[in-house]
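dumping this here before i forget
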Amino acid sequence: MIYLRLIWSYLKIGLFGFGGGYAMLALIEKEIVGPGWVSEQMFTDIVAISQMTPGPIGINSATYIGYVAPGEYSEALSSPVYGILGSILCTLVVILPSFLLVAYTSHLIHRHRDSDVVQGIFMGLRPVVVGLIASAALLLMNGANFGTETTDVLWSIAICVAAFVMVHIIKWHPILIMCLAGLAGWIIY
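structure:
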């Protein structure tokens, strides 16, 4: 049944999704697009919607995928009731491992935060998180986001580079950059 498979997938995502939502994107894609519950195009749309809505991207995407996956899996499950059930299940399951882990280990980490072992663990996890976020960036550099025609790809790369420069070098506010990128996309495409 789709719900058990979603629970199993989001339990794995919740257990091994270190570094936040962007670091989880590669794992989410493998677990959700791989079995064919959503297409790659729908996945990139879900990521975009999850970025625009308030809250963590991992939880937002779990809620949205939980809603659409039952209907994509079977026409008999296309009712909003099944989607709402999937949303609730996926959202609760993706946060459950983190909640339990933080509840169990927070006092231990706080008590031993100056320990060489704890410091070593965090020093080992930091580069992994950066790598996972970089992996998410590469994952999103696909035909669905950048286009397949040469001119579309070149325009998309130009917008990407311009946004990077405006945020990290010129230090413009990210909301302004998103508005300008939307305007540029509307004009160009």
